[in-house]
Amino acid sequence: MDEWIHSKRCVSKYNDTRNNLLGSNYSSKLSPWLANGSLSIRKVYWETRKFEKEQTRNESTTTYIDELFWRDF
Fold first, then answer.
1. What is the pLDDT of residues 18-61, one digit of tens each?
2. How far apart are CA 2 and CA 20, in angstroms?
3. Domains of the chain from N-terminus onward
């Protein structure tokens, strides 16, 4: 999660890459850990908000947060 959000800053390009099938930087690849409870949606949410505060807030970060809400719903 830290690498995808903070190191590679992939969350800032989420809108452009979320539907790609090949490559290491598309999607967050956090689904298995979210599904089995090893990682909480709240933790990912707050890390994304931290990224927005420290780096940039754009349509991609907003969309990613919206997707987290849908997943939790």
1. 888 777 777 888 999 999 999 999 999 999 999 999 999 999 99
2. 21
3. 2-15+29-72 (1.25.40.80)
